[in-house]
Amino acid sequence: MRAAITPYVARAISSPLTRRVRRGLKARKARSNATERQVDVYLNPRDPHGYLLLQVLPSLGERFGLTFRYHTVTTLQDDMFPEQALWQSWAIADARDLARLYRLDFPENDPALPEAAVHDAACRMALAEDQADFADQALEILRSLWHGEIPANDSTPPEPEAAQQRIAQNEERLHEAGHYLGAMLHYEGEWYWGLDRLDHLERRLIQKGYGKHPNEAARFVRTWADLCRKPKPAEPITTPLEIFFSMRSPYSYLGLERARQLADYFECPLHIRPVLPMVMRGQAVPPAKKWYIFKDTKREAEKLGIPYGFVADPLGAGVERCYAIFPYAREQGLATNWMHTFARAVNARGIRSETDRGLRRIVEDTGLDWEKARKCLDDESWREEVETNRQELYRLGLWGVPGFRFGDVTAWGQDRLWLIQEAMRGDRA
């Protein structure tokens, strides 16, 4: 009974009506507290996205008349960051790409980031949070940290106990508010990560009439606005675009939709490499992380014109059935169609893939033969291919999905396909 009801619950709580009601209640509370233009900012010194965020907040605040309340945090929870070393390496490379895209400051070479320097930066930031010039101080602290100008030794932060107490309070506040990341903005109950989600905040502020200019528009759109809109190379592209894909991942669903668009636009082959979901690989996905991803996927999907929200979670049997039929679909030349149809079915149509009735609908909507597909369900040979894909994903320095590869260029996340488009066009230096 619960499995039958869950898709309808997901659709209801992600509906525009529910969002409007929730926003209205939060806005009313903010007005009563005189905080309708106040944004909470959570910064983790070891997260380079926070350094980029600090560089753009002054102009954002000026455009919309915002005030910022800053909170320094330092913890990376093991259950939220299952591969911290890989995450740190990726975050640095990703911040460098974003800095290039938005013409912000970031070092060309990877900084050493000694733990003593990170601790020093965190303490100094925590103790400056209540000062009017915190943003300027924090920007200089992080600039020095990321450019390797803070000494690793003989650096004694002032009042370390007071700083640690403040950081602990900030982390408790972050946890109670329902999140776990640094480089986060929190405004009237909704979260905005780094530069990537500022366009959602910009649009919300514009809708509220806070823009100082009548023609104000979202500016932080460079990661997605030009996808499939730039001129294509004259010569055909024979190098395939590979996507490392999990059928349970909402971001993989968006990534497949957009990768398919990109491959069609550039007329290049698209190869789908399925991997098991994290939960089916023994890695937990805590409720706060799952809930944030669901809501974030919904707003990203709306922005991109992709249906999402009527979700029938395929975890377990649904995923296994999908992957068992994948080799058959590939033999029929329908590999991409199979994955795309299945992903739409479980993310936007509420079809329960763990049932024969639901699976048959997906199979026939793809153009496959149900009797032949059903015979594939007892074949476990797909597991070897899926495990090979997982190992290759890690070899590339990635651990989560969707991951992308085009030639020697790799990218993680559906909002990093602009890097793949650069490679396809030959724009990367």
UniProtKB/TrEMBL annotation:
One Pfam entry name: DSBA
Keywords: Isomerase
Occurrences of domain DSBA-like thioredoxin (ranges): 241-424
Molecular-function GO terms, alphabetical: isomerase activity; oxidoreductase activity
Signal sequence, renumbered to the chain: none
Domain of life: Bacteria
The protein, known as: 2-hydroxychromene-2-carboxylate isomerase
Organism listed in the record: Halospina denitrificans
